[in-house]
Structures are given as C-alpha cells and as structure tokens.
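[RESIDUES AND BACKBONE]
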Amino acid sequence: MQRSRQEIAAALEDGPTVGYPELAAGEHGLIGTALDYRIRYWFGITPASQFVAARGVEALPRAFDEDDAPDGFMLFVACRRFIAALDDLVASLDPINRRLDVEQEESLDRQCIVLALLEQLFRVGPRPGSRLLAKPIAANLTELLALPKQAWLDDLRELAWAFDRRARDEDWAGRTAMLNPTFVGSRDLLGADADLIVEGCLVEIKTTIQRRVRDNWIDQLLGYVLLDYEDQFQINEVAIYLARQQTTLRWPIGLLLGPATTEKLNALRREFRDLLRTPLKVSAP
C-alpha cells in the first residue's frame, strides 16, 4: 500500500476544497448521502421505489408515538406521494450528463436532501433534531420540499457542479453505469450496496473534509469486489471520488490483490463467501 499512500498524498496536497466545511458533523453526513443520490441522477434515473429512501417511508409510522400518530400519518402520506411523483419530477429537469442551472439544481437538490433524510431514518432510526421529524410536521409535498436548509442547498449545488466538471475530465458522460449496485453476495452481508460501477470501475463517493483516505475505505471496496461471487460486473478497477477535493483516486485490482487472475479472484470470492456463511462460535465465559 506504500505506493497508494504516495499517490494519495500527491493528489490531495494543498488542493481545493468544495463547499461549506463549517456545517455540523451530522449535516455533513446528510449532505454526503444527498450527493450520492445527486450523482446517480447525473448518470440516469433509477425508479424511486428502488431507493433505500423508499424503505425509510415505510419506517415512518414507527417514528411516532400514539399521541403524535396524526402528524405521523400526514407525513407518511406526503412522503409516499413524494416517492410516487419523484421520477417524473426528476425527468422534467433532464439532469443526465449535464450541469443544471441554479434554479434547476436547487429543485433537484431539494429532492435529493429529502431522499437523504428518508434514508437516514431507515438506516439509523429517528434521530434527535431530524429536520424530517421536527414540528411543524410536513403535511404535503410543498412543505416536504421546503425542509432543506439553504446552507445545505448551497453546499450540495457546489458539490454537484464540481462532480460535473470531474465527470467530464473522467470522460464518464454516456458511459454505461450501474447505480447503487448490489451483488450476489450482498444477502450475506446485511444487503450491502455500493455507490456505482462505471464500465468495470467500482466507485465509492466520499464527502469528507479531511485530505486523506482511510484504509477501511479500500477494504470496503475490496469487500464489494469479493461479494460479486459470479463476476457479474467484471470489476477490474476500484476508485474513490473525494467530492470536496474534486479528486478521483484509482487502483487496479491487481495492485491491491496482487496479480488478480480470474482463477485467483474466484478462489478469494469462495473463501470470502464461506467465511461470511460460517456461524460464529461464542465461547461461554
């Protein structure tokens, strides 16, 4: 990994940072999830019913106690209508492979932030201070799309425009992309899903303000590669897109795993599958 560390240091040293790093830590996480959705829309329109956010809608009734049930029901209905209308709303903006103007971008970013709030609800449950659950509860689509703070919209717009520039540098426009892919082995690891695959390159999107790459991010990417038990996506390269640094870092599979022949990779995948499917043994104290 020494060579990779040198490449990372060279790429990130004194580089620019996009957006508003003074946002609170929880807000950075929310913007990161919203950017995942926004970048997917640069490549194509995935049916909203397939998003993790749609599962967040179904989790809404559990976020309210009996006294707040009427508010919860109104929000539930508004969010269901949002998911049902979303594909047409996005299609009307025509975001694929192009930079939107300020008004169009803000409209799409509002939708992506609501998706992020719903995904957050599904993945971690009701969070204290969640904009989605704060009173007065959004009772219709207009109120739902008014939830994002202006600072969030400004930040997401700059990140989206920065990605458009980077994607053109990478020559990604018009390329075949798999958005939010799951793998044959995903069921063995809590339904693990990746960000995107662009013609054999598995890309993980990170919105950190730190100018470094954590080792566990690379482990995460390699885990996805190994979950592709049947080599469905023919991944030959992995990449991390550092959104705030406008930087894409790439590693051929052979660099990370050694000479990655098909036979060797298949053997590693079988070992990984067997490990995940082996019951844990807990010793008595």
